Amino acid sequence: MRIRDAVAILVAPGDERAGDLEIAGGDGDLDASGCVVTPGLVNAHHHLVQSAFRTLPGTRGVPMAQWLPTMAAAYAEARVDPELASLAAAVGVAEGLLSGVTTVADHHLTWPAGLSPADTVAIATATADAALALGGRLVFVRGSARDDPQEAAASADAIAAALAPRTTDGMLQLAVGPAGVHSDSRETFELLGEVAARHGLRRRTQSNEQVDVAVAAERYGKRPIDLLDEWGWLAPDVTLAHLCDVTPEEIARLAAAGVTATHAPGCDVPMGWGVAPVAALAAAGIPVGLGTSGGGSNDAGHLLADARLAMQVSGLVGTQLPARDVLAMATTGSATGLGRADLGHLGAGSAGDLCVWDVSGVADAGVADPVAGLLWAAPGRRPRHVVVGGRVVVRDYELVTADEAEIVARLKERVGR
Prior knowledge:
eight-stranded mixed β-sheet, Urease, subunit C, domain 1, TIM Barrel, 14 helices, 40% helix, single chain, 2 domains
């Protein structure tokens, strides 16, 4: 595929050029005149099932200790099953593709009680099928939130065994991850860690949010980072999401351990749960990615909008982040946390995921730097075209792989909203 006549092509942070771009495979040429081309965005932290539970009463601007049981009650009433998982994933992945997200990491934490390992495989498979049918890349994270440790590990083992044959082309990746020390025991962390080692999976969890810090202090008399260290979860294969409340000493420990981080300002900022000190994390050498989190706290899966928010609020907790650095978080930073050297760039070895952004309209008039303008100008900006692995999945702002109205109607029929 040839991308013709782009104003600028962001191959890697700080590496831009004008002209054409060739990528392997594809559906023919794309006209990119008047556009900026970037790598596909990588959403490193989402909860796709929450796409069916947006703006619920009692879930906005409340403490996390109040938000968690409200969401749990909604899940129980709706009956999370393979059908709902599929419908919600289709909505979340389609929304992501339409806003430039070519890869999404789904930290799935919602498992009704009493499921057999085979039942959980059905939910994971339904999620994967929905994402792949749309042409998006999926990282399915078998999470846990107060699940029985042995049952969670057996489920993770079964999911890894069942879906491993489908991971060879890079479209599907598997990982494991407890919700955090506030909800899961040392045994859960250790057993899921054993599953990860057995199957060669990466590990992900959430750390140092409001509830996480409070529960760790009350239950253990320690900080979350202390517990993760003791439980074997400070290591190069681990990514920690949120990190709103970390000390300079903890940042140094994370850097020494080689962990990666994911910033989720679109969840944490509007909910009042804090702002991660991204500049300090990056200055310590910690790769930082970007995620939207789920529809239960961030009602949009628009990663570029959250990149804009991350840039805007960064000065409240340290140094103002330049637009290019934040764009790098949404591409190479997130890809690093997933262990995916083929994602987040358009250089040698790239998987061929890209977005074509039109910057010729009035929202970009007067912009001196069209790359920085991707974030500063036009809130809610959507890409004109999106390509995944050389395949066009969004053309002229519309899904190529599915009917958007049908996706919406199917979820509405199931949840009544």
